Amino acid sequence: MIFIMAWRNVWRNKMRSIVIVSSVTIGLFAGISVLALYKGMMKSRVRNVIDAEVGHLQMHNPGFEQDYEPQFILAHGNEVLKVASEIPEVKLVAPRSITMGMLATPTGSAGVRINGIIPGMEYRLSQLKNKIIRGTPFDPEKRNEIMIGEKLARKMKLKPRSKLVLTFTDISGNLVSGAFRVAAIYQSNNAPFDEKNVYINMEELNALLGIQHAFHEIVILLKSDLVVNKVQQELQQKFPAFRIESWQEISPETDLMVKTIDQYSYIIMFIIMFSLAFGIVNTMLMAILERTREIGMMMALGTNRVRVFLLIFLETLFLTLAGTPVGLFIGWAITGYFNKQGMDLSGMGREMMSSFGFGTVIYPEFPTDKVTGVLLIVVGTALVSCLFPAVKALRMRPVEALRK
């Protein structure tokens, strides 16, 4: 009976109810859009980290990552590389020789991470070749070529065919230098990464470091994101002397960003619904004041305060929930469109986006995993919105209400 009365009361003033339902629809759509955009941005960032920067897993000598000392090579690296590549879940593997050094030009110097790579393997694993914006890939017939990031190139005023000098220490602690010529300038979706990382042929770096055919890192790309822990444990059992880390451990700032954005998404959703609550409170308060005699009559006939409160709560809940499916559907439809077409945010500036590690085209994704949380926020909004009008109604004295 209370349910029927509440539903009929909602539609006594249709225009007022439609305005509130529309407000809830628009607010919920706005909230879903924000959640979808954040989810798309985080998914894009994670894909960049895995597919273009660090891979799913990396293997190192345990002492290497403390100081990047070049003597901490992977023992029997080629055998380890072969075993890792034969695991069914593994898609690609690639070795890297790494050292920290100084890049110097006539205009200045900068600290860089020097990555010695096998070009053919690195092109497939990190898509390095696809990131080239000026110049050409490494030429097998030429020596001492280097590939640098676009941000570093602008900072050091370098262009293709420019000369530079790399200085670093070898495994004996001696300073060694090599002159290189810029073969290509690459640009990824992560400007800080571009500024810090340069690539040269692994054979040339190894000769300067004095480590011959060894290397410091094996990067592993898997066929699925879901088997990271399984393959990590399998490799750790086979090679207990090595340090094997997942992308979350290698790039903890990305993992933290994903978790933080999730929390911010709910906060934004809460703020939107909290703002809508004022409109709902105003509507319910007007409805209560218009029905003072009616509520007084109900209480005089024996309707207890719990049922009166329940009646007002249900009216508020119906008003709030009526706009929920419409808001969710519109959010789902528009999110689905941009998920296929992509949302171009280049107007915000490629440099600004890349400084945070994001591309300019984002593919929003409907936040299915957050729908339950959104519905709880909607019900919570209805409950909070009904409290003030309900208290106003419960304080009425039946005799005084009937005189009005």
Automatic annotation (TrEMBL):
Q: Which domain of life is it from?
A: Bacteria
| Membrane disposition | Multi-pass membrane protein
- Which key words tag this protein in UniProt? Cell membrane, Membrane, Transmembrane, Transmembrane helix
Query: Where, per UniProt, does this protein localize?
Result: Cell membrane
Describe the location of the ABC3 transporter permease C-terminal domain by residue ranges. 267-397
Keyword check for Thylakoid, yes or no: no
Where does the sequence pass through the membrane? 17-38, 164-186, 264-288, 308-334, 373-394
Domain MacB-like periplasmic core intervals: 17-237
Name any one Pfam family assigned in the record. FtsX
**Claim: Transmembrane helix is one of the keywords in the record:** yes
- PANTHER family, alphabetized: LIPOPROTEIN-RELEASING SYSTEM TRANSMEMBRANE PROTEIN LOLE
Family note: Belongs to the ABC-4 integral membrane protein family. LolC/E subfamily.
The protein here is known as: ABC transporter permease
